[in-house]
Amino acid sequence: MTIHSELLELCKQEKRITSEILTKLQEMENRRGYLDMGYNSLFDYLVRGLGYSEATAYQRQACVRLVKEVPEIKKKIDQGSLTLSAVTTAFKHIRKKPVAEKRKLLKSMENKSSREVKAMFLEPTPHIKIKKTEYVDKVLLRLELSHKQNQKLEKLTALKSHKHNLESLLMDLVEKELRSYGIDQLKAPESNKSKEFVVSRSKNPRQIPKRLRNHVLMSADYKCQHPGCDSDHFLQIDHIFPVRLGGDQRKSNLQVLCAAHNRHKG
Ligand SMILES: [Zn+2]
Description:
Blueprint: H1 3-31, H2 33-36, H3 42-49, H4 54-69, H5 73-79, H6 84-94, H7 99-108, H8 114-120, E1 129-134, E2 139-144, H9 147-159, H10 166-179, H11 210-219, E3 235-239, E4 254-258, H12 259-265
Antiparallel strand pairs: 1-2, 3-4
Helix pairs in contact: 1-4, 3-4, 4-6, 6-8
The structure holds zinc ion (ZN).
Residues 224, 226, 229, 231, 257-258, 260-261 line the site of zinc ion (ZN).
């Protein structure tokens, strides 16, 4: 037998055992047998009584609870069209919903990867509408927020009110974020520290230390260094001589490219 066919066989057994465990846990839950044994919940029993990690215990418990309400999903789990991790992900979001809705949601989760299931329950990224008008001496931004977004902004403004009003708070956030890139003023001052940064402690040359990254960005005036391009958006640090060919993260081997030119370089 090849290793592959052995593994296939073991996976089949693993599935069968998982299924049997779920059935037994179901019985345990229905009789509340764990109470007599001194455990105060199914979760407690799974962790202390059976030695599961808390994460796995949570998975098992979520499944037992959902199968109790929507029994047909047991078969789906056994067949593999629903995975335990997908069911666990869903559990957090659907446990308070009525059974009919649970059933519908579980049905729509079939044959989806746990990543896809996670995406199903993500709240859509909130969208802010901004209208920008530029004048000679100023820029006017008209900001349209949902009430929820505004509540968050008001909350932060309230928390910071000892130091800021809304206007100064916004600029403070912008400046803090810029400083995290090593930018203090918008015109980068002439730097006389153009010394070579020696390869840092990090063993992985793809990982560029923040200080070095900021230095490279500053030397490039925060613009793409591809000839003829001066894009200041989507900037990436590129290894001139690629890492896969032995290039390192010395400053002389690093340049700033916009995403398009970095992709173009391949
Ligand atoms: Zn470019």
